[in-house]
Design a protein that fits this description.
alpha/beta, TIM Barrel, eight-stranded parallel β-sheet, about 10% strand
């Protein structure tokens, strides 16, 4: 299970909760940091910096959404180098045309299979760390059909991808059949309010999925809570009624490994 986070503080919470890995959500970074939709508006430099903060704040592996790879094959190669340098453990690259759209929205278009194959080969060639995981994501289910999703996945595996991420499958049966037809490490996306049914990690693992991301769940919960708090503050003029729902100063300092007696980061 890889809970999604938009920032390093929430990544620390994921680690403290006992998860083995964390997912740096592309939508989360765009929405939470820049206040913009997930349509490829952040640059590689911004994504590498923001995701790097996450990777360096925790000891568990961090996997990041690298969208379309920020351009053609040459750009994808540079993307892999930058993400490795930033400390990420892996990324996924999708076969949408730029500008991309959320995988669960209409209006997407895909690049030609051969173009995506070229991107994957460029990514593999650029990799310096053999443990850096390169995941090929296909959005073909919403644009073409289920059979083409399988065909594209198989081509991406042949190109060298370490794992496959079929986006927006539409039923439990599709998840089952895809895992049966595609013999590779698989990633499932359990995002809310989208095309896919919300299957449990245990169910997906039983079908053959090795990674399950929950990209925006924690962010959505926190945004709902802050929205309700702000309404209450506007109405009452005080935050007093919300104190028992807040993370305390002590809890925050513990999360950040901040000891006021010695100063931040353990420095005198």
């Amino acid at each position: 299970m890889l809970p999604g986070v938009p920032n390093a503080a929430m990544a620390r919470q994921v680690e403290r909760a006992g998860f083995d890995a964390v997912y740096v959500s592309g939508a989360g970074m765009a929405n939470a940091t820049a206040g913009v939709p997930d349509i490829g508006l952040l640059t590689l430099t911004e994504v590498a910096q923001l995701a790097g903060y996450v990777a360096n704040a925790v000891k568990i592996p961090a996997v990041v959404d690298a969208d379309t790879g920020f351009g053609g094959a040459e750009n994808v190669a540079r993307t892999i180098c930058k993400l490795e340098q930033a400390g990420l453990a892996g990324c996924h690259i999708e076969d949408q045309e730029f500008p991309k759209r959320c995988g669960h929205l209409a209006g997407k278009s895909l690049v030609d299979v051969e173009e995506m194959v070229g991107k994957i080969k460029a990514a593999m060639a650029a990799r310096r760390d053999a443990d850096f995981v390169i995941i090929a994501r296909t959005d073909a289910r919403a644009v073409e059909n289920f059979d083409r999703t399988i065909e594209r996945a198989q081509r991406y595996l042949e190109a060298g991808a370490d794992a496959i991420f079929p986006e927006a499958l539409q039923s439990a049966d599709e998840f089952k059949v895809f895992a049966h037809e595609v013999n590779a490490p698989l990633l499932a996306n359990m995002t809310e309010f989208g095309k896919s049914p919300l299957l449990s990690f245990q169910d997906l693992a039983g079908l053959g999925y090795h990674m399950v991301i929950f990209p925006m769940s924690a962010f959505r919960v926190s945004m709902k809570a802050s929205e309700e708090f702000l309404r209450g503050l506007k109405k009452s003029g005080t935050q007093s009624a919300w104190l028992d729902k807040m993370q305390t100063r002590k809890e925050l300092y513990e999360l950040l490994d901040y000891d006021p007696a010695v100063g931040a980061w353990g420095r005198d």
